[in-house]
């Protein structure tokens, strides 16, 4: 497949910047032909930059980090929630598909690759995006795959509306909604939901480091139930563990750990040995 077929992207701010090198590494280690484009509020640290340079030198040059400035008339917290769903079509010229993910994930290679799985889901639900509505809610999940041309044909003018009027972002979040509700409302206005409720598909494509933010307590349930949980589908733990341990045994991953120490990465390494 062409290296221009899929772009994996997200928008990062605050303390989440430390996860960028790990996210980029895991994607390109698992799928070297994918491209990764990360939008980040402000600047990365010297060591974060150094980690990314090592990834480019030793693994793949298919990565771009775009440092952005804050929009005016909107708080950082609310902009951070909304911005990854307001990335304009111009940022993805030449890409057939875009996967908007969360930066605090480690992506592994699966039997059904990320790209092919979501293309098939789009076909089943008859939509230019692949996602899932959370049960009994008006929330699409934060992991959002799109068919670039078809999706932006309907969404780009609405995205431009919010980027040109940042106070409208602030206004939307003033009601107490979450980022997933914001995305749901955007999509409802221009595309709708097709057969999304008939075909559940919401894989994590790896491991969510966020479950370790407050310690190891959720690890066991997450990995044991993930294979059957339709809202955070995981590979069987044996294959997930094998892929994750391969990261930890890789010299480049060790170099990143030394440059950008992260408690969740350290804890995951311990838990993989114990379970």
Work out the helicity level. 40-55%
- Structural class computed from helices and strand pairing: alpha/beta
Distance between the termini: 36 Å
Domains, number: 1
Count of helical stretches: 11
Radius of gyration: 18 Å
CATH class identity: Alpha Beta
- The helix/strand series, from N terminus to C terminus, equals EHEHEHEEHEEHHHEHHHH
* Bulk shape: globular
Q: pLDDT average, as an integer?
A: 95
Number of strands: 8
CATH architecture: Alpha-Beta Complex
By CATH, the topology is Spore Coat Polysaccharide Biosynthesis Protein SpsA, Chain A
How are the SSEs ordered, and which strands pair?
Elements: E1 6-12, H1 20-30, E2 35-41, H2 46-58, E3 63-68, H3 76-82, E4 97-100, E5 105-107, H4 114-125, E6 129-130, E7 144-147, H5 148-164, H6 166-173, H7 179-190, E8 206-208, H8 219-225, H9 237-248, H10 251-259, H11 263-274
Parallel strand pairs: 1-2, 1-4, 2-3
Antiparallel strand pairs: 4-7, 5-8, 6-7
Describe this structure in words.
With 275 residues, the protein is α/β, with parallel strands linked by helices. The chain has a single domain (6-209), classed as Alpha-Beta Complex (Spore Coat Polysaccharide Biosynthesis Protein SpsA, Chain A). The protein is 44% helix and 13% strand. The protein is built from eleven helices and eight strands. The strands form two sheets. Strands 3-2-1-4-7-6 form a six-stranded mixed sheet. Strands 5-8 form a two-stranded antiparallel ribbon. α1 runs parallel beside α2 and α2 (46-58) packs antiparallel against α10 (251-259). The model has no long low-confidence stretch (mean pLDDT 95).
């Amino acid at each position: 497949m062409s290296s221009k077929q899929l772009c994996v992207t997200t928008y990062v701010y605050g303390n989440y910047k430390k996860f960028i090198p790990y996210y980029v590494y895991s994607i390109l280690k698992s799928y070297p032909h994918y491209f990764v484009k990360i939008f980040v509020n402000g600047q990365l640290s010297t060591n974060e930059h150094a980690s990314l340079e090592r990834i480019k030198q030793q693994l793949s040059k298919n990565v771009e980090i775009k440092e952005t400035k804050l929009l005016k008339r909107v708080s950082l917290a609310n902009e951070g929630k909304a911005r990854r769903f307001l990335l304009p079509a111009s940022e993805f010229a030449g890409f057939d598909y875009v996967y908007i993910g969360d930066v605090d994930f480690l992506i592994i290679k699966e039997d059904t690759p990320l790209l092919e799985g979501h293309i098939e889901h789009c076909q089943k639900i008859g939509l230019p995006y692949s996602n899932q509505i959370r049960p009994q809610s008006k929330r699409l999940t934060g992991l959002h795959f799109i068919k670039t041309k078809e999706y932006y044909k309907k969404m780009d003018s609405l995205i431009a509306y919010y980027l040109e009027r940042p106070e409208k972002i602030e206004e939307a979040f003033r009601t107490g909604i979450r980022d997933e509700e914001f995305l749901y409302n955007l999509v409802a206005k221009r595309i709708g939901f097709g057969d999304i409720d008939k075909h559940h598909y919401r894989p994590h494509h790896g491991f969510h480091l966020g479950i370790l933010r407050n310690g190891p307590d959720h690890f066991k349930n997450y990995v044991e139930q993930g294979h059957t949980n339709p809202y955070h589908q995981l590979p069987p733990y044996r294959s997930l563990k094998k892929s994750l341990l391969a990261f930890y045994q890789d010299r480049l991953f060790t170099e990143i750990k030394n440059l950008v120490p992260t408690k969740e990465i350290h804890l995951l390494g311990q838990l993989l040995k114990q379970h």
